[in-house]
Amino acid sequence: MPKRTDISSILVIGAGPIIIGQACEFDYSGTQAIKALKEEGYRVILVNSNPATIMTDPEMADATYVEPITPEIVAKIIAKERPDAVLPTMGGQTALNCALALANDGTLEKYGVEMIGAKADAIDKAENRQRFREAMDSIGLESARSGVAYSVDEAFKVLERTGLPAIIRPSFTLGGTGGGIAYNKAEFERITREGIDASPTNEVLIEESLLGWKEFEMEVVRDRADNCIIVCAIENVDPMGVHTGDSITVAPALTLTDKEYQIMRSASIAVLREIGVETGGSNVQFAVNPADGRLIVIEMNPRVSRSSALASKATGFPIARVAAKLAVGYTLDEITNEITGATPASFEPTIDYVVTKIPRFAFEKFKGAKDDLSTAMKSVGEVMAIGRSFAESMQKALRGLETGLDGFNRVVELEGTSRDVITAALSRRTPDRLLNVAQAFREGLSVEEIQPITGYDAWFLRQIEAIIYEERMLGHTGLPRDAAEMRRLKAMGFSDKRLATLAVRSVGVAGGMAETQARRSGLLHDTLRAMAGATSEAEVRKLREKLGVHPVFKRIDSCAAEFEAITPYMYSTYEAPSFGEPENEAWPSDRRKVVILGGGPNRIGQGIEFDYCCCHACFALDEAGFETIMVNCNPETVSTDYDTSDRLYFEPLTAEDVLEILRVEQQNGELVGVIVQFGGQTPLKLAQALEDEGIPILGTSPDAIDLAEDRERFAKLVGKLGLRQPDNGIARSRDEAAAVARGIGYPVLLRPSYVLGGRAMEIVDSEAQLDDYIATAVNVSGDSPVLIDQYLRDAVECDVDALCDGTDVVIAGVMQHIEEAGVHSGDSACTLPPYSLSDAVIAEMEGQARKLALALGVRGLMNIQFAIKADENGNELVYLIEVNPRASRTVPFVAKATGQPIAKIAARIMAGEMLSAFPPIRRKFDYMAVKEAVFPFARFPGADPVLSPEMKSTGEVMGIDSDFPAAFFKSQLGAGVTLPESGTAFVSVKESDRQAIVPAVRSLIEQGFSVLATDGTGGYLAQQGLTVERINKVAQGQPHIVDRMIDGGVDLVFNTTEGWQSLIDSKSIRATALQMKIPSYTTAAASLAASRAIASVRVSQLEVKPLQDYHS
Amino acid sequence: MADPATTLAQPAGATGVLVLADGTAVWGKGFGASGSAVGELCFNTAMTGYQEVMTDPSYAAQIVNFTFPHIGNVGANEEDRESRVESAVGCIVREEVTPHSSFRASDQFVSWMAAEGRIGLSGVDTRALTRRIRLSGAQNAVIAHDPHGRFDLRELKRQAADWAGLEGMDLASRVSREKAEGWEGGEWTLGEGYGSAAQGAGDRPHVVAVDYGSKDNIFRNLVRAGARVTVVPASASVEDIMAHEPAGVFLSNGPGDPAATGERAVPVIRELLDRNMPIFGICLGHQLLALAAGAKTKKMHQGHRGANHPVQRVGESWGDTEGLVEITSMNHGFAVDGDTLPEGVEQTHVSLFDGSNCGIAISGKKAFGVQYHPEASPGPQDSFYLFDKFVGMLG
């Protein structure tokens, strides 16, 4: 059936900020969808509050609304744009919920907007637990024994049917927020209560536990002619009990007979038909009893998902692109499979490799939260790896994860421990369970012992056992000296680094000692090397080269080589030389080429912003005539779309893997250079290894980047340029740290060297806190010193992004933070342009930026953080906090706020062009853009939801409007916070904030708010003539503020703290605010901003405007 | 792009080898039965169902190169067997077969292969081999396994080169049953196994199925659709068939060259057509029906073997479902030449991979055939409807 001509404009709803459970996979799918719809000539209107996305690039959609994704705001967009249709299936749960609300409140009908891709009833049928269950019953598919409850009492009635352990799933929440597994009645009551609160419909489903059952996901696509295909079957290595987003998974399913697989296949299709998904991609999840194959339907998502992104990358079948085309009327047979260019999309991809996904977690950021995995998703990113075997794929994934693993690294805590300890470790569902399994094999446990404890299928366990067996042999014999044996080991996925570690062990010298000695030259080293074969990663590489053992590259072609693939989408493997030389399908071109190294798995501090920059490097260098080659291992990203670059290598970002790619690419054409400055810390870490091999690095030299990160080198440069830094020092022991801190004077900011995302940064107020920090947060030693800075209390912080070509410097954007210095810049809200800085201060910062860029020899992007603090005479002093001569997190926000493609310009400068070749960057705006950070605190009960120098946010939104209050209001709305228009505010601020908070409180009272305050704050406010009601602090006994909050008597919280004790005392206030969804501000500046927004903004009066209009 | 014939020296530890007719030797580890076997090399792209593939008689005199690297994960069992006669002589896999994990397994794949007398070869770049077949077409080859690694390469090359190949070969008579027998056994269900066909057998329309090398799941599906089934040998004459008083005749899949098998089978089918007997043919049966109706068959470059093949319904007779795509299981190296369909033979299905003919219906008669395997096993079950359609015609 041809495409529909009765519609001409389509509204695409994005997913909003990156949060746990909804990450950049929706930028990938949305971007594909927009491109697919534009290809067909439709006018595309987009709403997405997330500026860090490729989909919100102004050249993607025809009208791009960076506005909050709430029904009220989207209704305004619909009223203004009058689209013919809305496509709600590309933006995750956010888009589905929003579209469903617009259908239910009559907006869609009022404006004659048709929902395409999924109808409201199908969405409801899939999402409403009761209706879904009834639907499954009607087609003869079994569901888990379960029941719906709207209260704790009802829940206990359901429990009589399901028994314990029971699984509690709230309806309509992302990634299962608020759900969990209850093993006893007390837990059951707690989780049920939380789940009912978390659900927008106050509804929870209570299910019989299927713990330990095998778990599968089927990615299904259906068109309006009722053609159905399975794109991919994904098998979870972690059995039921761990959210699929937190599970290690493989594709295709590896432990099913065809008869079992076909039952699941037919059932998946029956589910789509019954739910009524007319067109598009859906995902159906199943649990299978390993003892008898009993099959249970868990759930289905009538939209593209994280799994569909994974399935797309795993097979080369672009589900979102195809789903978008199906939504406008095409059928599968009318769409070409772009990988082969010759066959239609109406087939089922077949693959001849194994794909492994491992999630990445961030528990270390949330002190107090337990690292137990459950049915509520907690991971912040994932790595995908491809190998020709399970072992190769798995070991590549482990090293691609970038958590310090080279493979199945030893778990030191379990070494030599008792069977009970190991069994206990295996029974806990934690991020490290897979490593614990490997360790259990080392400790002598068998597959038969490990299987019942973990529920991992015996087939997977035997594969891991085989890897550990090889490790043990290597530990005896050292490295093989012949090519066949070396190739056999490499084909099992062992990294050179892991092989070196194992080989050194064969010499019988204690690991650390041998490695230290191995690094030195001399007789001992030569002897060690002779015995082990190699003692370091570099030596293993040399040995491999000598033996002629290199990986080859195979194509991801969706058809297992049955057809020629025209799209160069590749992965490495060690292959047998079945026809002489191992067959390599890389076939590098003879073009001038640039390799762009991506950012690897998303983590807090390194997420979609860096992928955005990498994509722009591809786009820009393609425009400039280069062949672009992308290397990355994050399946959620746009950068790993085969469309983004000319050639895509889906590979771990380690020196070994990247060097092998470069080796092949250099065999033909000219490698102009590698871009390592766009993917965050991940590719930067590889710069040295690349330089050592003589690979040209484009742009700012790695040495200049190192200079900026090396405190001592940098301090010298700052001195030379005559710039001002906060007092600082460096310490390599506890005593040194205490001395430096005393010299600077408390409070001081402590951090380990070389960090991204502010990991383990902390402000300390006293020597006691300093001791605590050193004891718990870092290892202080000669190799890893701790950096100590004067903490500029109450200073205003700024970010400046600049471009430099070595001769000229252009300021791209100056951002003023709303939170004061001390809150990590990634966690601060900020405005562009600055909302309260003098022209003199801005000019001073720009001047300093110019000096620094030229002094560092920047070629490309640079980000500088400044703090502004008045001295005792009231003169505003500009302090230089930090310089990063590379792409930073702020780049996409600056680009969206200013309408300038600064990442693209930077990439072209790196490739040799000059700034003078580009149009000047506009710096005067008649509007204001506010970036706000979004936090995952709700996922980590137990952790204190407070802002600090350690970055904790997962994503960001942008609010843009004509003035600051409106833009701020929108940024809050986009981040999920609706500021109250009236009600009761609770105010409790530290002494130094009392004066500052007065205007905020006065404004609230003028707006009709009543104000609660604790003694100190309340007394001060009363002195200022403000009427406030006094309330107990928690420490003062009940009834206290938390009681009032729980009872629903508080609508807004302003709570700032100073010092350790005060922070601890007030934790329950923040935790309660989070739980009760009460807007809460923990800095005076943000409180002020909120009060200004409350005073002047009403949602109903907000206006919406596309980026294209702001930029024109 | 294919490499020229290369003869690598035997690597240490090699206990298996594949020798192509062009002299290329591909070394690996042997498993399953020892010895050597000659056949046509083909590849199969299915990711599940290796045991069904290895017991499908259509693979007689063939060596199957599995494109999926891990084969044997779920072992072997009695239920997933599709026949007890000669089928693929051997298989090539990338990864060494490891112990299985499946509650359904009763045997390891490796020991099952040995018990079945089939030769396996692992440790081969099966993707490179697949590309080679794609680029240079199906080749004849010898697969050999010796646990001590002793091979007479010259002799193996000679065997591969001397083998006449499938073209012109009537293999159906070799794998067919020798006597007529009543079929028992219905649809498979999880936990229950195969149902019995005995219930109400007398009232059911009687289908006489000609066995050219059939897969059991075809008969089970005919039973599921409501038929009573009697299986007769490929050599059955019209009289033999009619003696069973069939309501319809089914023509099974099978190995070899349809033109060769057709020499004896086509006159029988033509006679049945003349008598207006309802006929349904699958794979080889489809090709024989086409030959009987006056079309021609041809050898394909690389054949279609896998479980992901899209087949589209064509022709107005489909009504609303014209254009619908079925994902099908396929296994054929010969095909009906769509350009040779005579008047009165309607093309009902085509392959969306290469446009080749995948189904015909004979106008004015209750006779149709499909090139693919609607009985699945292994593969998708989108096309079970064909059995219902056929049995429905017999009422």
Question: Could you please describe the fold and organization of this structure?
Answer:
By secondary structure, chain A is an alpha/beta fold. Chain A contains 40 helices and 38 strands. A seven-stranded antiparallel sheet of chain A has the order 14-13-10-11-12-15-16, sandwiched between helices. Chain A has a seven-stranded antiparallel sheet with strand order 31-30-27-28-29-32-33, sandwiched between helices. In chain A, helix 1 (25-39) crosses helix 11 (319-327), helix 14 (433-442) crosses helix 16 and helix 33 (964-974) packs across helix 39. The longest helix of chain A is centred in the middle third of the chain and has 20 residues, at 458-477. Chain A is globular. Chain A starts with 8 loop residues before the first strand and ends with a helix. The model of chain A has no long low-confidence stretch (mean pLDDT 93). Chain B is of the alpha/beta class and 395 residues long. Chain B folds into two domains: 4-162, Glucose Oxidase, domain 1 (3-Layer(bba) Sandwich), CATH 3.50.30.20; 172-392, Class I glutamine amidotransferase (GATase) domain (Rossmann fold). Chain B is built from ten helices and 19 strands. Chain B has helices spanning 50-54, 109-116, 126-136, 153-162, 172-175, 216-224, 238-242, 258-274, 284-293, 385-393, and strands at residues 16-20, 25-32, 35-44, 62-66, 90-92, 119-122, 139-145, 181-182, 188-189, 193-194, 206-211, 228-233, 248-251, 279-282, 297-313, 325-336, 345-351, 357-362, 367-370. Chain B has a ten-stranded mixed sheet with strand order 8-12-11-13-14-19-18-17-15-16, sandwiched between helices. Chain B has a seven-stranded mixed barrel with strand order 1-2-6-5-4-3-7. In chain B, strands 9-10 form a two-stranded antiparallel ribbon. In chain B, helix 8 (258-274) links the parallel strand 13 and strand 14. In chain B, helix 8 crosses helix 9. Chain B is globular and about 65 Å long. Mean pLDDT of chain B is 95; it is low at 1-5. The chains are: A alpha/beta (1112), B alpha/beta (395). Chains A and B meet through strand 11, helix 9 and helix 16 of A and strand 2, helix 3 and strand 15 of B.
